[in-house]
Amino acid sequence: MNFSAESPLEKTEVTREKISAWADSHGAKQVDVYGKPSNSHLQELERVRNLSKELQNNLNDLENSVCIPEEEKQAMNPIAPILDYSEHHEFVSANQLDDYYAKEDEADAREEEQRRLTKGKAAKTAIQRFYKDQCVFLTGGTGFLGKVLIEKLLRSCGDLDTIYVLVRPKKGKDPHSRLHDMLDDFVFHRAHEENPKGIHKVVPVVGDMEEPGLGLSNEDRKMITSRVTIIINSAATVKFDEKLSVATGINVRGTKSVLQLAKECKHLKALTHVSTAFSQTHVKHIEEKFYEPPMTVEALEAVAQLDDSVIDPILPTLLGNRPNTYCFTKAVAEEAVRKYGEGMPVAILRPSIVISTYEEPVRGWTDSVYGPTGLVVGIGTGVLRTMYMDLDKLADMVPVDLTVNAIIASTYHTANNFKENQTSDIPIYNFVSGAQAPVTWGEFIEANIRHGISKPTTKAVWYYGLNPTKSYYMFLFYNFFLHYLPALLIDSYCALTGRKRNMLKFYSKVIKLAHILFYFSTQDWRFSDDNVREMWRSLPTSDKTVFPFNMADMSWDYMTETFLLGLRVYLVNDDLSTLPEARKKWNRLYYMHQCLKVITVCVVLYIAYSLFNLISWLVMG
């Protein structure tokens, strides 16, 4: 029996004998132990190679379709910055490397401790121990701020007893259905994963902030007064142009009813009233103290009983130096807290403009279109082309998750520092960004463009092109040519083709929302936040990890990384899977935008040339 000369089996007696026996039984004269591939084997191998090559090409195409244009531009840019390896380059010493790695180890240790604390795998923090077995009564729980507050309590204070949420029937849904649907929202997914049984601790209580006594039944009122230990009043109408009667009913009369309910609670430990940093806009330097109200609580309640036809003509006189009914009624609500909360463990927290989440439970989440959120959505979809604003003014905004942590901490702080029969001033906390992490409107918009321009939405109607101005007359000029004239042309085309006309109506709503922001985008205020800083300093490190709210640690660059992306996904409901399609559409809109600008310039030049010729002819004639 012959083997292939290179075969190692020939050198082994046992294998040589077994191969020989096998070859004899099969009538084989020579065995090639390495084997020779048949034609079918070669064809199969070639087919697999071609398939692998095709898959690799598809992966490369997919990667190219979703890569960030800015990164591509930088990679292809021949004048991109080059690292300096010349003799002047400063190299890192061994000691510096040791310090660097030591800091890295410390950071890793902090991150690991943070994971243990936030996942509930470490010892309970002081705030978590405080909330253990407590019954919380929450107003405004179905609103933007309230949802994030409930989520945080369920996830980080899972040992609490119950969260009673005041809910009214709305749009044909009863309170139980509304709360059930709300808890199915995406923002609660993380809480469900980390505390699956927590959903059963959220209990709806039928009521209404506008109704006398909050519209509570006798049974619910008895249950609340006998069980509730913590009250958080975050309910408010956030419509700045709300009717005075409605704004008074919710913001003032409702707050008064909450305070009266708190007085009846047998085991009350703390009550936190969520106001607004803009409740005292008539003062340029807003401190953490009470100010003289524009009207007494009782006087405003009496005025609110009048018919709207009587109130509307005198409303500007009533508001005085307050910009709208929201700020006006929130100022009177603080007076209600001062008057009816005396002798109780009460605190007021004044957040500035509340925007999407900074970190928890996910970055960039929001479901509110008011304020800067609506502004950025309008810019990102190409709908908003001009805005009356001063880009150099401070934009005082705070992320909703940090605001929620401040509410939870201030409630704990109030309970810990309150003494029976205390008659001292009620603590007020100005939770603002301008005092420790200031950002101007110009910086905020520029950062969102920088991080968001590569993540457009398929629902964009035109390419980005905002023309901000601090001149109101220039705004009116821009508004006519960039908003109303295009809307008029589109509606005229729709009328001729038998389609529905809605652009003029749509832009009327857009400008109405923009008008609400005008007052805050053309001026700024100086805020004191000493009480907030002192509260932060008093917390142990573990609580600072689980309930972070220190604005000095906040980065606006980090915030804007996902701000526009969050609006795209959670508010506009445009999934990230559509990103390649959105980028193609964005590129088309860009070229259409550039073509339109060229055409516009040509038309303007032609008109100017025609006018010049006409004037010359008249002068010469």
From TrEMBL:
One Pfam entry name: NAD_binding_4
Keyword Coiled coil in record: yes
Coiled-coil residues: 38-65
Protein family according to the UniProt entry: Belongs to the fatty acyl-CoA reductase family.
BP GO annotations: long-chain fatty-acyl-CoA metabolic process
Function description: Catalyzes the reduction of fatty acyl-CoA to fatty alcohols.
Reactions accelerated catalytically: a long-chain fatty acyl-CoA + 2 NADPH + 2 H(+) = a long-chain primary fatty alcohol + 2 NADP(+) + CoA
EC code: 1.2.1.84
Name the record gives this protein: Fatty acyl-CoA reductase
Membrane topology annotation: Multi-pass membrane protein
Organism expressing this protein natively: Pieris macdunnoughi
Gene Ontology MF terms in the entry: alcohol-forming long-chain fatty acyl-CoA reductase activity; alcohol-forming very long-chain fatty acyl-CoA reductase activity
Keywords for the protein's UniProt record, in alphabetical order: Coiled coil, Lipid biosynthesis, Lipid metabolism, Membrane, NADP, Oxidoreductase, Transmembrane, Transmembrane helix
Domain Fatty acyl-CoA reductase C-terminal: 482-574
GO cellular component annotations of the record: membrane; peroxisome
Residue stretches making up the Thioester reductase (TE) domain: 138-407
Entry's localization field: Membrane
